[in-house]
Amino acid sequence: MERKQFLRSLGAGAAFAIAFPCLGACSKDGGEPGGGNTPVPTGVDFTLDLQSAESEKLSRNGGFITKNSVVIVKNLEGNFVAASQVCSHQGYEEVRFLDRDGGIFYCEVHGSRFEQSGKPLNKVDQAQAKSLKIFKTELSGALLRVFE
Ligand code: FES
């Protein structure tokens, strides 16, 4: 079977995936606008209503949401913590919370992992790993303030 016939037999979606396998994941390393080198958020000060729909995922331990370039987490112990969504490695806005290893922050772009204190757990290249920026949280009834 010729390549053209083979691709046609797979259908358009599969043929596209084979022809352009690097779109998406590889573009993260390409320095495109909105990719790396995003500034770490500063002047953060906002309040979440924990009874609102946007905060629904914070009703369970291990749940998190993102807002204003901040990852807001209800950790596995039921405490609220917040960190920059912008990774300290190369500035991609891809930091998320993982409910494993006791609960860690993780950036999927190159695999950086951080303690909830922001301390790096690994380094993904030769450079010294930098801490992830952590924000303060303050709970008052059903209102959660996230600030510096
Ligand atoms: S930008 Fe490299 S691990 Fe996050």
Automatic annotation (TrEMBL):
This is Ferredoxin subunit of nitrite reductase or a ring-hydroxylating dioxygenase. PROSITE patterns: RIESKE. SUPFAM superfamilies: ISP domain. Keywords: 2Fe-2S, Dioxygenase, Iron, Iron-sulfur, Metal-binding, Oxidoreductase, Signal. Residues 50-146 form the Rieske domain. GO terms for molecular function: 2 iron, 2 sulfur cluster binding; dioxygenase activity; metal ion binding. Residues 1-24 form the signal peptide. Pfam families: Rieske. It comes from the Bacteria. InterPro entries: Rieske_2Fe-2S, Rieske_2Fe-2S_sf.
